[in-house]
Queue: 2 jobs
Job 1
Amino acid sequence: MLGGLDGDEAAHRALLVRLSIHLRAYFKGQLARIGKTPTDAEDLLQETLIALHTRRHTYDRSQLLTPWVYAIARYRLVDYLRREKASAADLPVEEAPELFADDNAAAVDSRLDLQKLMAKLSPKMRQAIQMVKLDGWSVSEAAARSGMSESMVKVSVHRGLRALSLLIGKGAAHED
Amino acid sequence: MKTDELINVLATNLEPVKGGRLRNTFLVALAMGGVAAVCLMLAAFGLPIDAFGGEHIGFKVLALAFTLGLAAAGVAFLMRAARPGEPGPRPLIIVGLFLAIVLAGIAVLLFARPSAWGALVFGPQWAACLFCIPLFAIAPFASLIWALRNGAPTNLALTGAIAGLVAGALGAAVLAFHDPGASIPFIVIWYGGPIVLCALAGAILGPRLLRW
């Protein structure tokens, strides 16, 4: 975690991979009890990973990591359940079986479609995320090519990731 | 989307995170909210003639100590509440401060003649307190919500309530410069009451405003 906070990409990636293994088991267990599929758990897992990433500045370096991760995962789970309850009430009963139709075949994929989500961002955020996070250009390269200042690129990436997690929360990825 | 892809996206070109960011956000929020509240007070009442003296200087000090003490205890709570998983301190100091001043107010009333109670409880400016404290609290509340949204609070109702309480206490402290009232029962009811109202408003607004 500390390596990731200091900007070490490999350490951050390794941490997220390790956490995703634990969190997947946790969410699968919790969601299975209310009849949700592993795909739902994967949606929630990805939402949580984005939250862990965009809120990583709220981790206090002098404290233990586990309670911090658990608190965020639990918050996302509670938020997810609240949301699902609201949208489940809107659904006609006949459509309910469809929710269980796609089961284990696509278990490792979530329903989140990054490109679809990106389309809903402002052009500036979309461009910044595309260049820095997807195409892997450095911040200074992205700044030079897009005409934005470097700090503007950084801010756009950060805000864009947050906006993405908000969009996921609103269920934008599940449309059509 | 596969989760491994998402992790790659998140880790690519990772920005380092500076240590004191959350604390700085809170300091900026407090400064902005406090300055805005003071400006509003000056615009409403003008510069107090006897800001640092006058016949009620004792009550002014008491009102400021009460309200600023509440604000300080509340901010300490909020800064932990913005970090998930921190062993949350119960807001005991806040309850303690309230209890102390309420007891003091009751004691004053008990030692006074019942015929004097009306004058002790209803100072000349009670309506101003009721109206102005929530009004002055709006700017600090907005800036505190902004700071909290930069963090990751997990108990939204309680966090919102404490944010409302801090904002109310700051609004009350600003008003105390203008007119602190002239008795402890007055401070308890017309300062403490609106602060509690602000906290209630914060508890109701918290889950909507702080959700992430």
Note: Helices of chain B lie at 3-11, 21-45, 57-81, 92-111, 117-121, 126-150, 156-178, 184-209.
Job 2
Amino acid sequence: MLGFIKIFLQGLLYVVLLPLIILVLALYAAYCIIIFIYMAVRSVIVFFMGGTPLGDLPEDVEAKRILMEREQAKNQDPTQTLANAIAQSSIQIAQNMYSQQSANEATTAETSSDDKYENTIEEMDDGNSY
Amino acid sequence: MVTLIKLTENDKRLIIVLLLLFILLFVIVGYIGVLVRKIMKFQASKADDMLHDVVETGVITSERKLMLFGIRKNWRVFFKHAWIPFLIMLTALTIYFLNCLFTKNWSYNVWDYEKTGFNTLFFVHDWSAFYRSSAEGFTITWPKLVSSPHLSGEAWVSYIFVPAMTVGGAWFAFEVQGYIARAYRIYILSKKAFRKTMENVTPPSSPINPE
């Protein structure tokens, strides 16, 4: 019931304000006709000058450029992170391999010098025996 | 006690019926108003689309610039939407004036019901004698039929002009309503977008200059 009364009162208000509403609409319609004619003339001139009559405004172009850059940055970020991670891990692996290899080499060198020493001792022993 | 108006039982019934009709009329108008407001809200949502990117990317940084940008965008959107109804109305007007020019009849009546007008397609009644009030009370007589629907060759311009102008005019009025809705929304958004609000601001726990 309350809703019905509300709608009824709104209807009453609209009926009372109807002349004003029609006046505002008529004024805006006249204004819009002027805008329409202006836009039509402007579009024809822009078209014959080789431009796009209803293309984007400079602000829109700038906004689109920024959004595109953001999108590209967003798309590039994961790849770059992955590439960096891969590069870092390869460096790590290479470093590990290098340190392991040098350690191995050192061990081998040590072993071979020990062998040489032992051989010399043996030779000397052999000499002594002579 | 002096009685100025004596109402019969029939008069009372008639007044009650008229009152109910008035209430029904206001309720219908109220619902139409609600519908128009909903449509205007829908039309205004286009303004959000127009302004979102330039504000979000920081291309526009002031209220005034946003307002001017919104107005220019609104003109473009209106032009894009309104050129079809405008063309329909322009074509109808051109046909009407060309007909007047070739027939040299500048008093061509598009609402005539006998020969040249759109009303030849409808039943036309004479409503002048519908309602009479006298000392005895109200009298209502059914209006006399003046014209029955018939096709007239001379009325072909009216058959094009009236529907085209009605459709084009209603469509154009709808677009004007959309223009108004968007313009109002742009005004509201330009006021709101760069306004600082204290709604979610809490003072720091350790102030720089404690008193």
Note: Chain B is about 60% helix and 5% strand.
